[in-house]
Amino acid sequence: MRVAIFGTGYVGLVTGTCLAEVGNDVICVDVDALKVARLERGEIPIFEPGLSPLVIDNHAAGRLHFTTDAESAIAHGEIIFIAVGTPPDEDGSADLSHVLDVARTIGRTLQRPAVIVNKSTVPVGTADRVRDTIAAELAGRGVDVQFDVVSNPEFLKEGDAVQDCMRPDRIIIGSDSARAITALRTLYAPFNRNHDRLVLMDVRSAELTKYAANAMLATKISFMNEIANIAERVGADVEQVRLGIGSDPRIGYHFIYPGAGYGGSCFPKDVKALEHIARSQGYEPRVLSAVEATNAAQKERLFELLGSYFEAQLKGRTIALWGLAFKPNTDDMREAPSRTLLEQLWNAGARVRAYDPEAHDEVRRIYGMREDLQLCDSQYQALEGADALVVVTEWKAFRSPDLGRIRELLATPVIFDGRNIFDPQAIESAGLAYYGIGRGRSVARFQERSGPMAQ
Ligand code: UDX
Asked: What positions does the entry give for NAD(+) binding (predicted)?
C-alpha cells in the first residue's frame, strides 16, 4: 500500500521502516530538513537496535523515502499516519499543536480519499478535533473528499521498538468506519499472525487505552518501589517479595522491578497528561497522583542512600555512576533517574565520574562540559579514585563485573545498586559494602553503624 507518515521520531521512523520492510511504499515527512537529509543518507538520529540496517536496506530498495514535502507525501498516501510529538505543556497536558498542524496541512492539500491514522499519544477527543480541522480546511477549499480519522496508538518500547512493531501484542484500532478498518487490517496483515491481534473499538476508547496502558505500567513500578521502601524498613528483601508475588498469575513477573524510578519519554508524560485529562473533567485521579509523587521521591532514593552512608558529607567526594540512560539499550536521557542523581550530587558539591555505553553524547548535549562531570571510556575507568559506585541503569555489561577490580579501584569499598542487579552476599564477600533498593536492612544498618565507613 502507499503510506505517508508525518513525524520521523521514534514512533514514525520505526513504523515507517517496518511497513516498508513488509513491502509497502512509504514516504516519511518531517519539518526538520537536516534530519530528513541525514535520514536520506542513512544516518539514524536515534540509537535503536536493529533499526539502522532496516532503514538503509528499505531506502536502497526504493520503498522508504524521507522528505520535507508534505504535499507530495499527502498525494502519495492512501493511508496517512500522524506520528508527531505531543510534548507536555506547562500544566502537564499534551501539546497538540504539531498534531493539529499536520491535520491542517492534510486538509489544505488532500485530493482523494484517505485514511488518516493517529499514532501520537493524544488526549481523548483528539481524533474528533483532527477530523473537524481537516473538514474545515476542505470546506474552505470547497472540495468534498472522503476521509476517515482512526486512532491507532503505538505501544513500542525503546530498545525493542522494531520487534514490538513487527510482532505486536495487540493492534488497537479505534474507528467506526468499515472502510478504514478494512484498510488497516490489510496494512497490518503481515504483523497480525498466529491469532488475530486486532482489537477494534470506538475512537475515544482507543485514545484512552494508550494512557491507561502506560499509567497501569507506571503504577506497577511505583507500587513496587513503595513495597521496596517498606521492605527496607521492616528488614525484608523486596527481591524475594517480588518473586513471591509474581508467581501469582494475576500479578505476574513483568514490570514489578523496583529501582531508581521510571523515566523515558512516555510514562512521566502520559501519567501527567492522564491526570490532566481527569481533572479537566472534574475528577481527581488519586491513584495517578500517588504514582507520580512516589516516582519523584524514588528518583531521589539513591542520593538519600549516599547521604546516609556519608553522613551528608558529599562535598568534595567523587561518585562513580554506571549507567545514565533511562534504561538499557537506548541513549535516551529524557526524565532519566540519573539526571536527578547527577543534579543532587552536583548541588551537594560532589564530583561525578560516569560511564554509559550509549548516552554520553546526550549527556554532553544536556549538561555541556562541566568540571564536576567526567564521562569515562569504560566502566572500570569510572571507578578510579571514586568514593562509591552507584549503578543507575542495568546495562548487561554491568551485571557480572570483576569485583576484585572494583574493590581495588574504589577509594571507599561500597556499591549502591539502584537496580538490584547484584547478589548482596557476593558483593559483601568480595569486601564491598552493599546497599540496594529495598533489600534488607539498609536503613537499620545505617543506624547500627557506629561511624561512617568512609575514610
Ligand atoms: C514505555 C512502554 O513500555 C511502551 O509500551 C510505551 O509505548 C512507551 O512507554 P519505554 O518508555 O520505552 O516504553 O520504556 P519501558 O521499557 O517501558 O521502561 C520505562 C521505565 O520504567 C524505565 O525507566 C525503566 O527503568 C522503568 N521500569 C520498568 C522499572 O523501574 N521497573 C520495571 O519493572 C520496569
From this structure: 30, 35, 86, 121, 158, 269, 334
Q: How far apart are the first and last CA of the chain?
A: 68
Pocket of ligand 1 (CB under 6 A): 154-158, 214, 217, 221, 255-257, 259, 262-267, 326-327
Note whether residue 207 is domain-resident.
no
Same domain, 258 and 375: yes
> From the first residue on, what is the mean pLDDT of each consecutive set of 10 residues in the chain (455 residues)?
96 97 98 96 92 97 98 97 92 92 98 96 95 98 96 94 95 97 98 94 97 98 98 94 97 97 95 95 98 98 96 96 96 97 98 98 97 98 97 98 97 97 95 94 66 43
Is the same domain home to 98 and 145?
Answer: yes
Please state, in angstroms and as integers, the Cα–Cα distance from residue 366 to each residue in 103, 155, 239, 334, 379, following that order: 32, 27, 34, 10, 21
Residue 255 known to bind ligand = yes
Cell of 97: 499543536
> Residue 46 sits in a domain of what CATH number?
3.40.50.720
Mutate to test the pocket of ligand 1, among 47, 262, 338, 417 (most ligand atoms within 8 A of CB): 262
With H, G, I as helix, E, B as strand and everything else as coil, classify residue 5.
Answer: strand
pLDDT value for 444: 66
- Quick one: pLDDT at residue 3? 98
In a domain, 227, yes or no: no
Query: Residue 65: enclosing H or E segment and its boundaries?
Result: strand 64-67
Q: Which residues are catalytic?
A: 266
pLDDT reported for residue 235: 92
Does the residue 116 lie in any domain? yes
Distance from residue 326's CA to the centre of ligand 1 (Å): 9
- At 92 the pLDDT is 84
Same domain, 281 and 379: yes
Asked whether residue 335 falls in the same domain as residue 254, the answer is: yes
Which atom of ligand 1 sits closest to the CA of residue 337?
23
402 with 267, same domain: the answer is yes
pLDDT at 51: 96
Whether residues 163 and 239 share a domain: the answer is no
For residues 395 and 328, the answer to whether their CB atoms sit within 8 Å is yes
